[in-house]
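Hi V.,

Quick status before I head out on leave. The structure for the redesign project is tokenized and pasted below; the design run finished overnight.
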């Protein structure tokens, strides 16, 4: 008898794909077959999935990109993707379908609705994304990564937390070394593609730190490709040793070694910071749908684990002041690290896997 099949549908950003990868790892370990349904963009983030997980690229589209003709063809492309997903499910029937958001998750979720397959969605943020909002009342359960999450009337919720990759779990609760008179690590991350506002502000803020503090800093800064040269030059001019890359493949290690993290407050970043337990300065992306990054940051901020600076109030002087306050007060920084760890959900993946299993038991 063939092992049960889990079909995971996820969009093409790290925020959707990393928790999807974590669930895939857990279900493969439980003896399930797992398939990933995504688009060409999402497939680029699938390299960390277990080798046994096939990637099925589906037709989908978004109204957010392209010209008038592209937008006019969106319904046609989505319909084609749905038909392909229906045919795929008829050939190999999934026991459960789980969507993680993003337009590429539409075909598989819509097919699951049409074929009445057990289905659920996982919402990483404190505000439902556009696609998850469409399906929230058409699935058996909305697994919430951030609590509370605003849901429409009639939607069934379960707080699972946001799954993190095994490489993050391997460093969960790693001992925090408080700031002191030694080389300290600052990690700057801005989502899967970096953040231009951080690239413009953080190096200038570092340059404004007191000399004694600035000379002890070692910076890892994730930046967009066209910002790398400029950011590198700014750190060099400030006399600060910095690694500036478009993408760090070893974020968990760098997080565990950091005395302070400056980051956007995407759901995956917040989950990683809290599971490992590090003080953070969070700058929510102002254009995020429903201002969900502010909602994501709220738990760490309210717990005293993070400082939040809205984009509208972000400038080098303000940021430098907050950085200096954390890095010059070792006990306060250690308390922030402890509070961050207390907010972490290292068991989120198992909670989500159990939610999947509960749908099978109900069938």
């Amino acid at each position: 008898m063939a092992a049960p099949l889990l079909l995971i549908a996820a969009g093409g950003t790290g925020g959707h794909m990393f928790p999807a990868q974590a669930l895939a790892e857990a279900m493969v370990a439980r003896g399930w077959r797992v398939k990933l349904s995504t688009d060409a963009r999402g497939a680029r983030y699938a390299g960390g999935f277990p080798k046994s997980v096939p990637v099925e690229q589906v037709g989908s589209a978004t109204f957010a990109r392209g010209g008038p003709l592209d937008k006019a063809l969106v319904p046609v492309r989505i319909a084609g993707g749905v038909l392909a997903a229906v045919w795929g499910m008829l050939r190999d029937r999934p026991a459960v379908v789980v969507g993680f958001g993003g337009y590429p998750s539409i075909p598989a979720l819509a097919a699951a609705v049409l074929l009445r397959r057990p289905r659920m969605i996982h919402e990483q943020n404190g505000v439902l994304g556009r696609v998850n909002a469409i399906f929230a009342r058409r699935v058996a359960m909305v697994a919430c990564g951030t609590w509370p999450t605003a849901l429409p009337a009639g939607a069934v919720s379960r707080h699972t937390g946001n799954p993190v990759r095994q490489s993050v779990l391997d460093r969960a609760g790693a001992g925090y070394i408080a700031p002191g008179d030694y080389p300290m690590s600052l990690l700057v991350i801005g989502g899967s593609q970096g953040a231009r506002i951080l690239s413009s502000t953080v190096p200038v803020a570092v340059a404004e730190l007191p000399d004694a503090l600035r000379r002890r800093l070692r910076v890892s800064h994730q930046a967009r490709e066209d910002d790398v040269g400029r950011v590198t030059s700014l750190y060099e001019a400030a006399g600060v040793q910095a690694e500036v890359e478009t993408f760090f493949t070893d974020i968990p290690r760098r997080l565990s070694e950091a005395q302070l993290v400056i980051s956007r407050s995407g759901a995956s970043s917040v989950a990683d910071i809290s599971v490992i337990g590090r003080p953070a300065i969070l700058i929510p992306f102002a254009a995020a749908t429903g201002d969900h990054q502010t909602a994501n940051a709220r738990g760490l901020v309210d717990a005293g684990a993070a400082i939040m600076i809205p984009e509208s109030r972000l400038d080098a002087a303000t940021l430098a002041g907050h950085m200096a306050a954390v890095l010059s007060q070792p006990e306060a920084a250690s308390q922030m690290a402890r509070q961050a760890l207390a907010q972490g959900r290292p068991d989120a993946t198992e909670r989500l896997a159990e939610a999947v299993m509960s749908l099978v038991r109900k069938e």
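Above is the designed sequence. DSSP finds 15 helices and 13 strands in the chain.

G. will cover questions while I'm gone.

Best,
W.
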